[in-house]
What does this fold into?
Amino acid sequence: MSSDFSDLLERLVSARVDFVLVGGFAGVVHGCTYVTQDIDICCDFSPANLLLLQETVSDLHPVHRMTPNRIPLQLTEESCRHLKNLYLDTDIGQLDCLSFIDGVGDYEKVKRASEPIEVRRMLLPVLGLDGLIKAKKAMNRPQDQQAVVHLEALKKLKEK
It folds into this structure.
């Protein structure tokens, strides 16, 4: 795990942001060897949790990655009520915050399908292998199809 990714995750855990690690990096935590360029989390999109997330990364100059002018992250309680996803660039990496994972469901379902995994002396909530496989199958992009092969092989190894 890159030290920047580790720092970003450590910040979220220390601040008690309510999230689950999903996507490619969750696969890496489970033992996959593929490379990912960002951290994907599924999180509680309540205003309180999103404002806590904003406060946690504020010194990393977060900007909305999907906006033409890369607008700085400036959430308010009211603006949080209209969000479904946040795609952020920070000084130490990309952070994608999702409220729903295809193949698994909303945050509460993702949370129930997660497991705590220790990574660099921090306990991370990570989407379990079954959930990751379902999510990757639902996305069905070429890289996701390849990830499913890796994840299913890992699952078989862990079951032995």
In short: The longest strand covers residues 38-43. Residues 24 and 44 are 20 Å apart (CA to CA). The mean pLDDT is 92. The first helix runs from residue 3 to 15.
